[in-house]
Amino acid sequence: MKFIVETYGCTMNQGESAELAARLCSLGHQQVSDANEADAVLINTCVVIEPTERKILRRLRLLQDQGKKLIIVGCMASVSPRQLREEFPNALISGTSDYPRFTKVLEDEFQRCGEAISSRRQEQLVLPVAQGCNGSCTYCITKLARGDLVSYPLEQLVGRVERAVGQGVKEVLVTSQDTAAYGMDGNDRLPDLLKAICGIPGDFRVRVGMMNPDNLSEIMDGMIGAYQNPKVYRFLHLPVQSGSDRIIRDMGRAYTSGSYLEMVRRMRSSINQLTLSTDVITGFPGETEDDHRRTVELMEGLRPNIINVTRFSRRPGTVADIMKGQVPGWISKERSREITRLRFRISSEINASKVGRTFSVLIDEKGKDNSVMARTDDYLPVVIKGDHDLWQRVEVKITSCASTHLYGAMVERMEN
User: Fold this and answer.
1) Which CATH number fits domain 358-413: 3.40.190.10, 2.170.130.30, 3.30.2290.10, 2.40.50.140?
2) Could you read off the pLDDT of 20-48 as tens digits, one per residue?
3) Closest CA to 393 of 359, 351, 369
4) Residue 207's closest CA among 233, 181, 178?
5) Do 91 and 84 meet the contact criterion of CB atoms below 8 Å apart?
6) Which of 54, 118, 121, 373 has the maximal Cβ count within 10 Å?
């Protein structure tokens, strides 16, 4: 059987898709990149916002009409299994908590059809470190999909990275619903895991995934030490969601804008050239123009490299879905556009300050129009013209910039 994988949503979904694809390959089935060639399609779903859910359903209907065998996994399969079974009765469906059992379902359904096929060589490992979280955000449907925090054993995770590095992996993406929560249900915490991973011999980089501020505050000292390790990208994804303390409280998040700013200040003062990415939700129930202005002012003072802006999306089963004061969509859209404009202005100014400087970068992605994408040690994306080999460390001089990335010219090829 030939199959293709399509993944929506977060980095964690990407990692889980890779694991399920590897299981199918171990049974002798072949992963392809063209849906027209595929007999089956594995769709890993996301339900964070309604537009994504609608897009996935349209795609599933098209594939079903084309006669493809559907394998539906991920968060939508967790929160809406009945709806999916009614509309796609011949599909194999598994929520996120059922993956251990689901591998046996895949074996029974598709069975072994030959010798194991090596899954595609990967120089990047997506490493989910936990399932679920310990938060109670009032807008979050992912909590309903993934449940309470269950951290994977440190030794098991380190073993995966050791094997992957031994097979040539150059980049490890540490991810979960809230990476800072890792180990809150056990003994080892995220700094312990990162220390163990960075202790593995080899030339590779580690990117730490999204962390919620309240949980980062508990492990701040250890995380500062972890980020000072040269193997860890100096990239901090720390969502604030709003500049209004009242809205942050109504969101069910246990920090204030002031405590958030103090966390960022500590991280920036301890880690040179830290790249900051944050998230903002516009139009949360009850958000006034004054609340919005507080968010704008916070972003202007904070000056993050990246602001991920999302308009509030009502999700069934969440507290926020039935809150009073629902904000009209056109107001939420206007506020989103304003913060997006601010985001691009700030990032353009930051990126312009890099022009003329030289950086060591790791090439990790093919780009458009005969180019490649590389990452600096603070995870800034650099476009380099030319058909260069991936996963090489090179030195580049920044020649120009855009609001979302830098442009660089290669100076000198360095050793792996």
Assistant:
1) 2.40.50.140
2) 888 888 888 889 988 899 999 999 999 99
3) 359
4) 233
5) yes
6) 373
